[in-house]
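Standup notes, structure subgroup. Blocker cleared on the dinuclear copper ion input:
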Amino acid sequence: MKINSKYAQGMAALALLVSMNACKPKDAGSVVSGDAASKVYVAPGKYDEYYNFVSGGFSGQLSVYGLPSGRLLRVIPVFSVDPEKGWGYSEETKPMLNTSHGNVPWDDLHHVSMSQTNGEIDGRWVFANGNNTPRVARIDLGTFRTAEILELPNSGGNHSSPFITENSEYIVAGTRFSIPPDDKNGDVPINTYKENFKGTISFVSVDKDNGNMDVAFQLQGPGVNFDLSHAGKGKSNGWFFFSTYNTEQANTLLEVNASKRDKDFIMAVNWKLAEKLIKEGKGRKQKTKYASNRFDESTHTATSTIKTEVTVLDMKDHPGLVYMIPCPKSPHGCDVDPTGEYIVGSGKLAALIPVFSFDKIQKAIADKAFDGEYDGIPVIKYEAALYGEVKKPGLGPLHTEFDDKGNAYTSMFVSSEVVKWNVKDLKVLDRVPTYYSVGHLMIPGGDSKKPTGKYLVAYNKITKDRYLPTGPELSQSAQLYDISGDKMQLLLDFPTIGEPHYAQGVAASVIKDRSVKFFKIEENKHPYVAKGEKESKVFREGNKVHVNLTMMRSHLTPDNIEGIKVGDEVYFHTTNLEQDWDVPHGFAIKGALNSELLVMPGETTTLKWVPLKAGMYPMYCTDFCSALHQEMSGYVRVSPA
Ligand code: CUK
Ligand code: CUA
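Run returned:
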């Protein structure tokens, strides 16, 4: 039988494109040159040059590495509990994980955005998204702790999030799964998708002084899937660009039905106009329910508030608010170059990278160079918005970062490589393999107005043989490249917690001096603080017993507690009296469900315990704090009720 060879080739190419197991580059190992070791060596006692904040994917956490060493410096629980830090165990931190669905101590964290001033990373906060139960978080870079979590209404699968404007006015969050809006009946046949499901973009305002977030307003429109986004900058400041897929609005077998169209869209949103419309009262109030959780650094306690209303603008009702730009084949990354002129769309299933021009988009809008409408939204002609295409970049382009020399770097998931190309002439300059199947890339400042040009990190999806085997599950993997010369050079593999998606990096000098070393005990406003051993006490309110307990090298005060009865609710409010850097004390008691705590110097943290039977219960400090750490202990006597 004669096979139509064109057809066969086409099918083979498609199979390769959608295959999750990318081909293995052949010259593994040989790409590392002799001086790689000295380039990543950070001598004992010396600091790394950059902080690297890396999403922890389905661990719900954020991890912090030093670059170029790849040393893990900290894991920050965000949408998770963490026994190492007692996060989510203490009464003070539990409200951080509250949602309109109750306490949800897990999420899927994909993207991070650092706060910016004038388009440069300012080192104040890192924002992160929770995909599953739609939330955004703000992490404080003084304490390296989660300071705030905001739930997002009218959203399902908060993937396109959080992306920040150049003065941190807003972070945006586009819904991945369109759903019926919260004030509508969600109990509808799934095949009524096209009429009942809506896509939503949330604009979350960020207070410029304290960082507090709120849902300022939302845009509601067609039931597409938003994927990724970036804000305009410089000349395009005032706009946001979102990649979308499933513009077919399929509700079943998305793998096939959402990949039918030759082109999906990049949605361009004029957020300055949206802001103006909201100021003019053009928004509509919609009923909903979402949680706003904040950690207060003076009381050392989180509070959770449920909010019930959100302001919505319908996209199609406001001319000039949104435009669609055709973009080949299921675009994933949507990245804006440092000048703000070039918008790079990366179609997962496309064999080229389209680069759009902001000036041309503006001209196309002025000239009405439209190609019809999509659900009431004008579609700009592809050629009218296009600056040019990067030809034959590799297979499966995903994400692009930029350096300080006018170059772009795009990750190629299927062909497992990083491809460097020039933004002006769109010529491919260099390519290096990744091990294996790279997702996001990160250059410190690489999505800001001021990228650096020394290092690039690739965050890979598949590890396989890169590390010693550790059973069926392998550590996630990142790779560091030197990009200072014409040719990229692989320097280092380092394991990450997983799985890593987007990351941000910044010079250590921007952050290190703002680090909090301890909390001043005289400023502690916790309602149950004991500011000295003399203030420690045990007192009863009905069946609640409060123990205001102090911790100081190397004893607990009080260390013998009696008068507790079975079924009492006992609250150990533990205050660490130390006033020095890096002297936490821990606290644990036998049999308590939420053991343990880790209490920072000057802070008060509460462990709740309901003893179920009479007996003698030892308690102790869990963090080796002095030569007499083992002596830092005591007993609680529990008597029958
Ligand atoms: S996504 Cu992970 S590789 Cu969630 Cu940013 Cu593209
Ligand atoms: Cu305090 Cu050990």
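Discussed briefly. The CA atoms of residues 32 and 490 lie 6 Å apart.
Next: hand off to the docking folks.
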